[in-house]
């Protein structure tokens, strides 16, 4: 768990359980998951930040990343679709921004035919005609990325352009692209850590039960009687 | 955003922007303050870890939950040993004398013949941003290792999402969530996804979950804006829940007490009478 005063409180039942299951596996506002097989740690934040405490959280997080000597930090984010530049209106809606060391390490893979990732275009402004990093609606992604650059933590932000609403498809797009790069979920069989057991491949992305009823309970039909 | 009828509503967006450091809540740590009675403080000093031993702890949040505990638990044989204040300035004078149940109070009661049973009745509307500080300050004074915690709260049915239309759910109804350490079965169905609990009750349950305490949260979903009988009655079966069943006090005048509490709250809602 991450129990920090910058995150608003939230509790709920297990979103990954079978929809018919009648058990209670509590989830809280910010949890940390680990996969030894993929050498991966994931932080899932379910609740928003307390206003004014975002920088406190960023400081804590960068400290934690350094302390645990993570190889790199991948920040999943998104950007307001209505803030796109003209050239961004068409074509793939997926972008990335990375620190120079990660860029050098991965440049070939990113530009390769399979990934074909496009770096986020800078936003020209009066102060900076070259274009600077502009991520409206991206939460703490921009400032966290800038903090990582200052602290020499290799970091990459991966994002999609999306509009407010049902962003389930945008999330799947983000996950799909991330998976193409990091090869996390296999859609073909693979060996486990012990080298012997075969892991069954996934057939498709699984939707958690917490994605149901995004727009609330269906309208009560008795209203129209 | 303009609606169909032409009124302008604020747009609520899940997307967040980075530049929020200008606004901030007043210093969160000092905004919430806990004050203990002298006797309780002296007791705490005597223990090794400077905490009060608690085997049973009830947190009631909101008028419905506090109405329930006032009627069936703390109405007799309980003494006030502490209080929590939100937003008091350093030089304000505060006493324990506030009497009306609708006052913005948050008192901590202890059972006279069972001193490790504590009840915190919070009539206040504590903002979620202060919940972290509230829970930390309160729990840092209590030693709850082997104890049981129960949290009562209430919210509106408009917050509840389900495939079944709300009118078919027969509000008010109860839902529960429990920590992993609690091995029993709560007295209400589990809160189904995609519903979540937020605010002070959620903060307390999170604290208990992380510290491996036995805790259950009971959330009452009501469709009434003001406190009414039906909502209070929904809590009634919970007097048999752990640990309330060991802490309750028989109240022969229960219905009268409930009526008084409901009347106090309805005074504000009788606009046309």
UniProtKB/TrEMBL annotation, chain A:
Which domain of life does the UniProt lineage start with?
Answer: Eukaryota
Q: What is an example of a Pfam family matching this protein?
A: PAC2
The record's section on InterPro entries has: Proteasome_assmbl_chaperone_2, Proteasome_assmbl_chp_2_euk, PSMG2_sf
One of the GO biological process terms = proteasome assembly
Keywords carried by this UniProt record:
Chaperone
**Gene Ontology terms, cellular component aspect?**
cytosol; nucleus
Would the keyword Chaperone be found if you checked this record's keyword annotation?
yes
The question of whether Nucleotidyltransferase is a record keyword is answered with no
Instruction: Give the protein family.
Output: Belongs to the PSMG2 family.
Please name the PANTHER family in this protein's record.
PROTEASOME ASSEMBLY CHAPERONE 2
Q: What is this protein called?
A: Proteasome assembly chaperone 2
From which organism does this entry originate? Magallana gigas (Pacific oyster)
Automatic annotation (TrEMBL), chain B:
Checking Pfam families in the record gives: PAC1 (PF16094)
Which keywords describe this protein according to UniProt?
Chaperone
The domain of life for this entry's organism is: Eukaryota
Q: Which GO terms describe its cellular component?
A: endoplasmic reticulum
**GO MF annotations in UniProt:** proteasome binding
Which processes are annotated in GO (biological process)? Answer: proteasome core complex assembly
Keyword Chaperone on entry: yes
Q: PANTHER family this protein is in?
A: PROTEASOME ASSEMBLY CHAPERONE 1
Q: Which family does it belong to?
A: Belongs to the PSMG1 family.
Tell me the protein's name.
Proteasome assembly chaperone 1
